[in-house]
Amino acid sequence: MNALTQNRTELAPASEAELMNVLRNSLYPGAKDESIRLVIGYCKAAGLDPMQKPVHIVPMWDSKSKAMRDVVMPGISTYRIQAVRSGCYAGMSDPEFGPVIEKDLGGSPVSYPEWCRVTVRRLLPNGVLAEFAAVERWTENYATAGKDTIAPNAMWKRRPFAQLAKCAEAQALRKGFPEVGAQPTADEMEGKDLDDAPTFDAATGAPAARKERPAPTVKELPEYPSAQFAEHCADWADQIAAGKTTPDRLIAMIGSKYRLKPEQIEGIRDLAPVPA
Predict the structure, then answer these.
(1) How far apart are CA 165 and CA 151, in angstroms?
(2) Contact status, residue 78 vs residue 46, Cβ threshold 8 Å
(3) Domain of 136, in residue numbers
(4) Gap between the Cα atoms of 145 and 143, Å rounded
(5) Residue 70 neighbours by CB distance under 10 Å
(6) Is residue 1 over pLDDT 70?
(7) Residue 113 belongs to a domain
(8) DSSP string, 202-241
(9) Which residues fall within 8 angstroms of residue 149, CB to CB, at 6 or more apart?
(10) 190 near 75, Cβ under 8 Å?
(11) Which of 23, 60, 66, 76 is deepest in the core (most CB within 10 A)?
(12) 169, part of any domain
């Protein structure tokens, strides 16, 4: 018995109270005790180590109870662990991305990949190496910054490629390893309602058909007053010259509260100093 094994055997198993305290103060700070108990119960049922944080506590809007409630959802690591445990996992491809789209969503300028494809490989009993590919589109997966806006939240704006890649990988793992489960991952459900949760065919892992939900209603913004625009131009020019902001940032900031006219947008862009 080596020293590492000996040290492990000398550690007494943690009581539920001790485990709750560790999870509350390290992996799930601020979470309710009942939510942490759900995590422990989920991990016990699935044979997972809660200290590896295989699942996440996701606050979600429940339209039936008209209130927010915590939901325990698997992370992408859960599907990876279960695929490896099957003994048939043969790796996956690097994420392949579609063309980069530049678009204004809810007054927020965003750059994102149109789609992402991930292929998971599984060794079948007959020795064939099968491939299961999944393609996910950014606009069908990204989380919004709120219920009444189509602007992406901070994570999806900061990491548009990595977030979409995790969603595509989760779908590919469900297709290649349907035994891992059909529940969507926390990354796929971030910023969505419980009613938005996709369902998957337990045999194939493919998404089941569901009713389309109406697009979020976006309130009509008031026009930016011409007098107010003229009053602030000089100040904006000074801020841009000092490197404190850029025309695009100003347009996005003002556009979140007001509707800018095309000539006003052009006027802000013209405030940028002309390169020597």
Answers:
(1) 20
(2) yes
(3) 88-208
(4) 7
(5) 18
(6) no
(7) yes
(8) TTT-PBPP-PPPPPPP-PPPPBPPHHHHHHHHHHHHHHHH
(9) 106, 216, 218
(10) no
(11) 23
(12) yes
What is the 8-class DSSP label of residue 29? Answer: T
Q: How far apart are alpha carbons 144 and 148 in whole angstroms?
A: 9
Are 160 and 113 within 8 A, CB to CB?
yes
Structure tokens at 193: 């309602």
Question: What is the C-alpha separation between 55 and 87, in angstroms, rounded?
Answer: 22
Task: Name the packing angle between helices 247-255 and 226-241 (round to 10°).
Answer: 140
* Amino acid at site 75: G
Structure tokens at 199: 């369902």
3-state SS, residue 123: strand
**263 and 161 both lie in a single domain:** no
Structure tokens at 170: 């989760």
Q: pLDDT tens digit string along 87-103?
A: 999 999 999 999 999 99
How many whole angstroms separate alpha carbon 146 and alpha carbon 61?
11
Is the pLDDT at 5 greater than 50? The verdict is no
- Check if the beta carbon of residue 180 is closer than 8 Å to that of residue 79: yes
> Quick one: 153 and 201 in the same domain?
yes
